[in-house]
Amino acid sequence: MAYNTKEIEEKLKFRCASWSYIFPSIEKKFSTTNFDESIKIANEIAKIANQLNHHPEVTFSHNALVIKTHTHDASGITDKDFELAEKIDQLLSA
User: Fold this and answer.
1) CA–CA dist 67, 52 (Å, integer)
2) What is the pLDDT of residue 27?
3) CA torsion angle for 72, 62, 47, 5 (degrees, to 10)?
4) Distances in Å between the alpha carbon of 4 and those of 7, 11, 26, 55, 83?
């Protein structure tokens, strides 16, 4: 079941404070030191996504990554998106 906007914003505060809700996805933008680091992190995110069978949109450049996720079959944000966001945050804080 997809959450409404108020529920999404509340969950973001408590579960994924560094993420934003920008319809139709939750997203996170962050800087990297160079292109190689962007690729390395994108590959690690791919491993997490495959484990969860929930795949985000990842855009990377020479010094930044943007990750967007929403649940297509629910047409919105679900627990799958918050779980993925939390695991990505764990990766980035390691």
Assistant:
1) 16
2) 98
3) -30
4) 5, 11, 12, 21, 17
Each residue of 6-42: pLDDT tens digit? 999 999 999 999 999 999 999 999 999 999 999 999 9
Instruction: Say how many residues make up the chain.
Output: 94
Residue 69 contacts residue 25 (beta carbons within 8 Å): yes
Separation of alpha carbons 39 and 23, rounded Å: 26
- Selected from 3.30.1330.10, 1.10.10.10, 3.40.1830.10, 3.30.1360.20, the CATH number assigned to the domain covering 5-93 reads 3.30.1360.20
Beta strands in the chain (DSSP E): 20-22, 25-31, 57-61, 64-69
Residue 44 pLDDT level (bands cut at 50, 70, 90): very high
